[in-house]
Design goal:
This protein has 325 residues and is of the alpha/beta class. It contains 11 helices and 10 strands.
Length: 325
């Protein structure tokens, strides 16, 4: 009886080993691509999920997955630590990280050098929204001492907010900063726990749409000097959100925006990045079905917001379609 049991266990163990070897062998030709996005309620996350699904369905030998993260600044750290292969970032923090200036000053000079540009995604404007119960907020300077949703820690929203504080000559002791965005901020609006919102999102933004539809919010323009300060010597650019884009928005809104871009580690193979980019552009209708902002993912805008060298795989595709020489 004991011998029979031992014999059976040996067979089971042997089969498991063989099965494991076959499985391991089957993985040898698979390229795992981890994509850093941002918070699960945002555009990066939704577009990333659509891309991963597209790549898994269309490209043989590629297994893509997405990670919810803190956003642009956090994503630069994940790339530097080789915890992801591709990431959504804003062009300005990507430039600062690559050159270890601004928010990344003091970091090792070569920490963020192993990255390359893949593609422009869409323009992302900064929003300034004040609540009806804070009628004294008319300009950005009026948020002093107020409860302000400024984006999560490590996000591009926080990155821009910090730059804006510098322009105003303020510090975090001048506002009551809330590390919230998207659904968390919507909940704060409904519960009257916030006075103003200062963070970026695409146009149209589902989150801003929902906030404006509460009837509690007013969409405001940024001060001229803030727009100037945020766009001079920067990859940011002025942008107008036309009247009527959102409920209860009766006038044009003057703000600034940045290019949301896709970047990859340089050590991701040329062939893999080529296939990813080709699939993404040749299936734009699918991507628009995932999120309407994919309409901005055009070949004409493919190189917008490029802060450093283009990845050889992306360059190969862009040369094929005449975007690059």
């Amino acid at each position: 009886m004991k011998r029979s049991l031992i014999f059976v266990l040996c067979i089971v163990f042997s089969l498991a080993m063989v099965s494991g070897l076959f499985a391991a062998g089957g993985r040898e030709d698979v390229q795992f691509v981890r994509v850093a996005t941002a918070g699960s309620g945002g555009n990066y996350y939704r577009l990333g999920a659509g891309m991963a699904s597209l790549w898994n369905d269309e490209l043989e030998g590629i297994q893509a997955s997405i990670q919810a993260t803190g956003g642009s600044v956090n994503n630069m750290e994940l790339l530097a630590d080789k915890e992801v292969e591709i990431a959504f970032v804003g062009s300005d923090p990507a430039f600062e990280a690559y050159n270890t200036i601004g928010a990344f000053e003091g970091k090792p000079a070569d920490r963020y050098k192993n990255v390359a540009f893949v593609s422009h995604m869409y323009p992302n404007p900064q929003y300034f929204v004040a609540m009806q119960w804070a009628q004294d907020i008319r300009t950005l300077r009026d948020v002093k001492g107020k409860r302000v949703s400024k984006g999560t820690v490590g996000s591009h929203g926080e990155f821009l907010f910090n730059q804006t504080l510098d322009i105003l000559g303020w510090g975090y002791n001048d506002v009551i900063a809330e590390d919230t965005v998207h659904q968390a901020t919507i909940d704060q609006v409904r519960n009257r726990q916030i006075d103003a919102i200062v963070w970026p999102d695409a146009v149209p933004s589902p989150s801003i749409t929902e906030i404006m539809e509460t009837g509690f919010a007013r969409l405001l323009s940024f001060d001229d000097d803030v727009i100037k300060g945020m766009t001079e010597n920067s990859l940011n650019f002025p942008l107008t959100i036309p009247a009527g884009t959102y409920t209860n928005q009766n006038q044009d809104i003057e703000t600034f925006a940045y290019s949301a871009i896709l970047i990859a580690r340089k050590d991701v193979s040329e062939e893999v990045v080529y296939q990813l980019v080709k699939s993404m552009y040749e299936n734009q209708d699918y991507m628009i079905g995932v999120h309407p902002i994919a309409k901005f993912m055009t070949t004409e805008a493919a190189l917008n917001g490029n802060p450093f060298d283009v990845h050889p795989g992306a360059a190969r595709y862009f040369k094929e379609i005449g975007v690059m020489d």
